[in-house]
Amino acid sequence: MYAFEYQKPKSLADAAARAANEDAKILAGGMTLIPTLKQRLARPSELIDLGGIAELKGIRKEGNDVVIGAMTRHADVAASDLVRSTIPALADLAGMIGDPAVRHRGTIGGSIANADPAADYPAAVVGLGATVITNQRQIPGDDFFTGLFETALEPGEIITAVRFPPAQKAAYMKFRNPASRYAIVGVFVAQTAGGVRVAVTGAGPSVFRQKEMEAALSKSFSPDVIKDVKQSPDGLNSDIHASAEYRAHLVGVMARRAVEKCG
Amino acid sequence: MPTVSMTVNGKKVSGTVEPRTLLVQFLRETLGLTGTHVGCDTSQCGACVVDIDGDSVKSCTILAVQCEGANVTTIEGLANGSELHPMQEAFREHHGLQCGFCTPGMIMSAVDLVKKNPNPTEQEIRHWLEGNLCRCTGYHNIVKAIEAGAKAMGARK
Ligand SMILES: Cc1cc2nc3c(=O)[nH]c(=O)nc-3n(C[C@H](O)[C@H](O)[C@H](O)COP(=O)(O)OP(=O)(O)OC[C@H]3O[C@@H](n4cnc5c(N)ncnc54)[C@H](O)[C@@H]3O)c2cc1C
Ligand code: FES
Ligand code: FES
């Protein structure tokens, strides 16, 4: 690691003021950032640790929605009675991320800010039609992920929470890379107030909605209706773990399993 | 350089560190607690797992300065004098190690599991160990050791 300064502000305002410095970087759980620094792939002058800001932690109900603070750890989402009773698929997803030690540090804000193409949370943010709340504005989940490791966040903008509306039914199925546990393909299916959503992670450079499957499932919510929907491999990821064709095939399999799991 | 203070194995300690110092470096190099191992340094293997404020964490993926005020337990903090912790004893008894390199992390993860789930099934143990890699044993005896260690920890209470 290159040398850097370390700051642990107590307030969001203080953190935001520091984050305005373009050489500074926000530190959340560190599960992605610290390995990146070790490989000298980033050289921030200063790390701004959000761990001292109480208002960024915790899970609360607002109306019917579940609002999860940016610094809430994966383990806390997986273990939350509120999440489990309102959106069980979201608690399941959090419990499938990485391993216990990663879940004891990694946060929802860090995961979605990082926008890894194989990360799990993006599937839930898009699949449930969630809203990303920052210190400056509210960003619809559909507009948040803009490309490979790219988001709608402006430089220095800080995610403070994610608001998830409940779903009538929802399920997440992932085909895991057995070594890293990241998604080779993960599909989040939900029946929401705004219609059926099918969000795919792992397969492409960024999470996307499978609109053909959404249309078919809106007519009849059963695994059979998407059996003949073909996912094109064009533009999908191809690497040592899986070819684009295999990933395209897995999108169909995981989507059918997720619909089945919705019951 | 910042000064960091924390409690390690029940003792208050402090040291002057560069912000980029990892917790595992602070433990091994500043405090001389070399029981915590670095297997991969890429956050994959779990040889470096310690307990921080009640949760198992990879000490190669957290800065020492992030642990200001924290309560840290390492493998050296488990035994009671010359009497091994029941989980350590179970690893010895059930041949849960060969070279022993992964063992400190395995035991720290196992103790955290049993604290949270006192009677884990074999499946739950294997699932919990997804972030702990062993190059020698094939895991079978590690799982047996943890089953026995869990029973012994329950009996001790
Ligand atoms: C061994 C291992 C296995 C893993 N397996 C999986 C897996 O199966 N599925 C999965 O989805 N992920 C996996 N991860 C990644 C893990 O979920 C990380 O926790 C996550 O990607 C990053 O979250 P973090 O809180 O650790 O963020 P950090 O590493 O601290 O930060 C990541 C990035 O986000 C920025 N950032 C952080 N918080 C904010 C904020 N509030 N506002 C704006 N920017 C912010 C940081 O500046 C940085 O650029 C794995 C990681 C490891 C080490
Ligand atoms: S040394 Fe920390 S996970 Fe391998
Ligand atoms: S006993 Fe050698 S690595 Fe596990």
Protein described:
The complex is a heterodimer of chains A (263) and B (157). Chain A is an alpha+beta fold. Among the domains of chain A are: 1-49, 2-Layer Sandwich (Uridine Diphospho-n-acetylenolpyruvylglucosamine Reductase, domain 2); 169-262, CO dehydrogenase flavoprotein, C-terminal domain (Enolase-like, domain 1, 2-Layer Sandwich), CATH 3.30.390.50. Chain A has 11 helices and 14 strands. Chain A has helices at residues 12-19, 33-38, 74-79, 81-86, 88-95, 100-103, 108-114, 121-127, 141-144, 211-219, 244-262, and strands at 5-7, 24-27, 46-49, 59-62, 65-69, 131-134, 138-140, 145-147, 150-151, 159-164, 169-176, 183-192, 195-201, 208-209. The model of chain A has no long low-confidence stretch (mean pLDDT 97). Chain B has 157 residues and is α+β, with helices and mostly antiparallel strands. Chain B folds into 2 domains: 3-77, Ubiquitin-like (UB roll) (Roll), CATH 3.10.20; 86-156, [2Fe-2S]-binding domain (DNA polymerase, domain 1), CATH 1.10.150. A 5-stranded mixed sheet of chain B has the order 2-1-5-3-4, covered by helices on one side. In chain B, strand 3 and strand 4 (55-58) form a beta hairpin. The radius of gyration of chain B is 15 Å and the shape is globular. The N and C termini of chain B lie far apart (44 Å). The model of chain B has no long low-confidence stretch (mean pLDDT 97). The chains are: A alpha+beta (263), B alpha+beta (157). Chain A binds chain B through residues 1-6, 8, 27, 30-31, 34-35, 37-38, 47, 49, 51, 75, 98-102, 104-105, 179-181, and chain B through 2, 18-20, 22, 41-44, 46, 49, 55-58, 61-63, 65-66, 68, 109, 112-113, 128, 130-132. The complex binds flavin-adenine dinucleotide and FE2/S2 (inorganic) cluster (2 copies).
